[in-house]
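dumping this here so i dont lose it again. seq + smiles for magnesium ion
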Amino acid sequence: MQIGIIGLPLSGKTTLFNALTRSKRPTGVSGAGKLEIYTAAVNVPDERVDTLSRMFNPRKTIYAQVRYSDISGSEREMSATQGIGGALMNALATMDALAIAVRAFPDESVPHPNNTVDPNRDLHQLESEFLLLDLVAVEKRLQRIEESLKKGSKDKELLNREQRPFERMHDVLEKEQPISVLHLSDEEVHSLRGYGLMTLKPMLVIVNEGETPWPRKVESSYTTSAVVTMKGKIEAEIAELPPNEAAAFLADFGIDEPGNHKALRISYDVLGLQSFFTVGEDEVRAWTVRRGATALECAGAVHTDIMKGFIRAETVSYQDLVSLGSLAAAREKGRLRLEGKEYIALDGDIMHFRHSS
Ligand SMILES: Nc1nc2c(ncn2[C@@H]2O[C@H](COP(=O)(O)OP(=O)(O)OP(=O)(O)O)[C@@H](O)[C@H]2O)c(=O)[nH]1
Ligand SMILES: [Mg+2]
C-alpha cells in the first residue's frame, strides 16, 4: 500500500512524512514549486503480530508494510484548463490513497500561501480544486466518446461500455462528491489510471496542528474521507527517539495514540483493508488484503503458485488461537477449519494453505 501526502506549500507535508516514517528529511525548504517525491516504507505496528511472534518464536517476524510518499510542488502540475501534468499523473498512478496535509499550526515565521491559518478553508479549497480537475477530465472524455459515437465508430459497443462509468463519475462530481464514493472495483480503478483522476482514490485528511490543539473541528466536504489530527513538529521530533523514551514524551504532550499508528489504522479503514497472518517456526507474517477477500485471494497475496495450486486453507481465528494456546490445541478443539476457495477471510485469520505444486 502506498499513500501520497499532498497539500498546500508549507502545510507541513515533509514534517508529517518524517513523523510517519521516522525519516529526517529537511523541512522548511521549498523546492521552488518543482514536483518532488520522496518515498519511505514503514512497518504497520500490530500487537497481534507481536503476540504470535512470542507464541511461535520464529526466525523471522514480518509486519505488513505501508509506503508513504512526500509529494511537494504538486500545485504547479494542476491546471483547471489543462488538467494534471504528466509527471504528477504518473506519480498518482502508483498511489493507493492520498493524504491531504492541512495546516492548523500558527507560526509567524512560516508564511501561509493564503496569508492566514484556516484549515477548513484550505481543505475545502483543495477538495473543490480536485473535484473540478476531475470534472474537466471526465467531461473531456465523455465528449470524445460522444463524438466518436456520432461519427459512427466501429467500436460502438466498446464506447458504450466506457461511457457508463464516465457518466456515473460525472453524476457524483456534479454533486460535489469524490469519485471514490462509487467504490469502483480494483479493475475499474486500474483501467482509469491513465486519466489522472484525483478523487478516484480514497483520501485521508491529516490536520497538522501545532503545539496547542486547533480549537475548531476540521471537516472534509467528501463523505468518504477520514480526518486525523497530528502534532506534526512534535511527533516528528518524538519519532527520532528510541521507543521507550518516546512513550514518556507522548504522554507529556497528551498524545494518547501516536499519529503514525492512528494514520495507519485509519488508512486501513479508509482503504477497506484487513490483515491475515501466516505462522510457523520459520516465519510469522502479516499480509494485507482488501476486506471481503476470499481464501483464494489471500493465497494469491502470498504467492501466485499457491493460488494456482490451492486446495484448502487451514484457518483459525486469532482469538481462538491465542485463547487455546497452540495450533495443535485449536485442531483438537475443532477450531482449525478447512476452508475452500470461496471462504471470505476475516480480519485476523491465521491461514495455512494446502496446495499442489
Ligand atoms: N510550529 C510548528 N511548525 C511546523 C509544524 N509543522 C511544520 N512546521 C514548520 O513549517 C515549515 C514547513 O514545514 P514542511 O514540513 O517543510 O512543509 P511542506 O508542506 O513540506 O513544505 P513544502 O514542501 O515546501 O511545500 C517548517 O519550518 C516546519 O518546521 C508544527 O506542527 N508546528
Ligand atoms: Mg516539503
